[in-house]
Amino acid sequence: MSFSVFSYESLVHAVSGAAGSVTAMTVFFPLDTARLRLQVDENRKARSTPAILAEIVKEEGLLAPYRGWFPVICSLCCSNFVYFYCFHSLKATWLRGQQSLPTTDLLIGIAAGIVNVLVTTPLWVVNTRLKLQGSNFRNTDIRPTNYAGIQDAFGQIIRNEGVGALWNGTFPSLLLVLNPAIQFMIYEGLKRQLRRGVPRELSSAEIFVIGAVAKAVATTVTYPLQTIQSLLRFGQFGESTDKSKVLSSLRTIKCVLVNRVRKYGVLGLFKGLEAKLLQTVLTAALMLLLYEKIASCTFRVMGLSNKNFKKR
Question: Residue 267: how many CB atoms within 10 A of its CB?
Answer without folding.
Answer: 10
